[in-house]
């Protein structure tokens, strides 16, 4: 038992100094022992949390060991009666057993069916065309160990997007975003900081395969043309910066 | 000489009997292997397991070493003393006409000569688990292969239960094939890792390559497809389905040379980016033998209409998103185009099809045998309007948005229906009204007595309903019921669903595949072990009360080949109850059960010809075996396992 306690003790200490990605501020409660931490393995379509359910009435742990007793029981996330559903629905990994390409399609269908009235004559001018599918793009950050994916359709502006990306990659900060969101980012003084290599710069690959600086075009146009995002080190963005500087000059 | 395309093993034996005095001695063992002679269509080939590579050959030593029989089969010359011997060349000629892998496996066990002749005449090999054998062993065993089907990751990788870097990379196979099978023509992969580098290697090293099919594979991008299009001069089939790939644009389609015209099958329905419609139209009009065309969502209805006009010979169509606003003129044109397609038997795609647009397909539906509506959330009325146009329907896939009423329409309009799959439109929406219930499936079973395949996702079910369904349709071969809330009982009686599955296994003698769900005790498994004597595949989740459950199955199900279990209270005793069984199975998967590392070690020690692999999860205890994957192999432990996959040895 001594080893068990020692192990626990070591674990607790480790958590205090654990490096994590996330905004500074009040810490989110650490994940329970035994559940998946970090981004090991794929996520399903919705953010999923691994839960182990003990549902059979007489389910027993095959006597494993003391500190192994932490096979978590689900916090009723799957129960229909639970009034306090967490905002991001906690679900069991890989359940129900549906392939991920079916899940994406369903989400699109739902939104397009909600928007569409049931019967319309073909000549009607007011029928909404089904909205285009969700615009998932990969987001990579130089130096980060894994990529993320975001659905650009969920955001309404550059500042929404930057806030969300900021949460995902804590060392990525846009700095002051005025009413124009990322456009302010490109004031000359900021760029100088970039060129010193001290900042991260969001860039994206557009439909033509070119890498562009985020923030140049109106938001809707950006969503249409963005294929993937890359948050690059300022020092690498030098090739992109001159265009932006020129733009700033022409604007001011 | 023999000009027949393919023959049954019975006919092969008859021919040989006429020509050999030995024939009469060999005749009797084959009476149990009579089979039909029709060539196996591509889809069904996959359900056969090639036992040749792993059959209980008496000479294979317990250490898994290669026996004398596995050496490259020698060709024997005919000597005058061998007047009573049967000439190899004729034997090979006859055996070459056998198609069925099961027949071929039987043939190879007769005697050394037949083993050798069968090996030389085999053209297609099916490998259900890429780690059960090595490419070198395959090449030695079958020197003249032209077509390979390979499956890799365990099925639960489809549901994110297997780490990304698990393995099943095809490249090492391609390297061996390049030297041993340079004339390889066909490669069909399922759940394998395929990189662009591998696709380029394939395209450049196999001059006769004709058919590539990738199902649920990952690791490649459209760049890899570009290599294939550019270099495979004789390509007849390019079938890219349900894969996790990087989409860098549709330029790959433009890589087919201008004079390229041999394509018969083109499926890019799950690629997300735009392809150039002009390029597609030109390609389709050049390829006069094109039979299967499944386009992705970027193809507009205008383009689709032109494609159909230029390729009315299509037998299978994936119709893209089908979501454009059509003027009456356009609608009429589209309808006319569909009317030209007299041979259409499969219709799929239709991602955002509206009821209005869907009516354009009616003229092509009269011979439709498979309709896949599982991407479009139709309502019951819409389905009810469509079905009367499809009198020959044998297979139907829908979303549960059609509701019980939609399924009643199925029962009323589809007397020939053999297979139905109902997928959930929104699996995580627990407030979903109008989803299907037990009434829906009962209605289908009442109207469709030929039903033998069902996949049904629902939120409620009763024991009585299931009993009614199997009473109406006793010929089920595949019964997959998914009650989406884990551990949910019969909603009218609050009892476990044991009796439901009991009635399935008692009534359906031909049952090959079963997936269970709902609240289940060990009694379900007692029934399964006792009655499911033909069952080959069983999937279990959140079920059972104790080790007994799994023990019943391991002891009773003599034909079991694949067993996948998650989140059940089965521990080491259960695992070890199958000790004698695992070598006759393809694989066992157990995750989030109660198996420990010690249990795995005992298994590995007792059964050295199994690979016992454990995937540990972060933060779990040292002694728990979180995910266990056990499979028979003649290739020894994996050499390419990532750090997260431990091969358990007996040490």
UniProtKB/TrEMBL annotation, chain A:
Homodimers and heterodimers. Residues 23-43, 108-130 are annotated as: Disordered. GO terms for cellular component: nucleus. It comes from Linum tenue. Aux/IAA proteins are short-lived transcriptional factors that function as repressors of early auxin response genes at low auxin concentrations. Repression is thought to result from the interaction with auxin response factors (ARFs), proteins that bind to the auxin-responsive promoter element (AuxRE). Formation of heterodimers with ARF proteins may alter their ability to modulate early auxin response genes expression. PANTHER family: AUXIN-RESPONSIVE PROTEIN IAA13 (PTHR31734:SF28), AUXIN-RESPONSIVE PROTEIN IAA17 (PTHR31734). This is Auxin-responsive protein. Keywords: Auxin signaling pathway, Nucleus, Repressor, Transcription, Transcription regulation. GO terms for biological process: auxin-activated signaling pathway; regulation of DNA-templated transcription.
From TrEMBL, chain B:
Residues 62-83 are annotated as: Disordered. Pathway: Protein modification; protein ubiquitination. The keyword Nucleus applies. Keywords: Auxin signaling pathway, Developmental protein, Nucleus, Ubl conjugation pathway. This is F-box domain-containing protein. Pfam families: F-box_5, LRR_6, Transp_inhibit. It comes from Linum tenue. The keyword ATP-binding does not apply. Residues 86-127 form the F-box domain. Its main location: nucleus. GO terms for molecular function: auxin binding. It comes from the Eukaryota.
